[in-house]
Amino acid sequence: MSQYPIAVVVGSLRRESFNRKLASALAKLGPSEFDFRQVSIADLPLYNQDDDDNQAESVKRFKAQIAEAKAVLFVTPEYNRSVPGVLKNALDHGSRPYGQGVWGGKPAGIVGVSPGAMGTAMAQQHLRNVLSFLDMPTLSQPECFLQAKDTLFDAAGDIGPDSRPFLQAWMDRFAAWVKKHAA
Q: Do residues 119 and 88 touch, judged by C-beta distance below 8 A?
């Protein structure tokens, strides 16, 4: 049994998402005691405070999956120089009702891939601001802004040989961060 269940929140709903592919490939670089579990955000309704006392089943499921995790790995694209709305919506659901959030104290890591040369730098900075407020100790170095290039993944969908040393080093740092901060 895994000592470290890790919730993986992908900020894209697209079926062929680069970030979903990255999340799956990164999980293969993690230590054996880590169990990476992608947590769906596709079925979450738009957050509405009026629903706090009667949350949708999808919200209850989402919050339970986050609560069970020892840490959270956010894998996000960048939309209009920020995080996708679906990711912000998931963060809001997980933080409410006030005082009953599931994020607090959970160590986090952020990675992302985008076709643009800047990768997901702005989205990650915005996400870091939110995670700071949510009291999530977030790995700050190394930063991981990836550009979607043909060599990022190999034919099997794993991390390609050119990117593997950097991403393995990132995963090693994330694993150490989680072990240091996980309650």
A: no
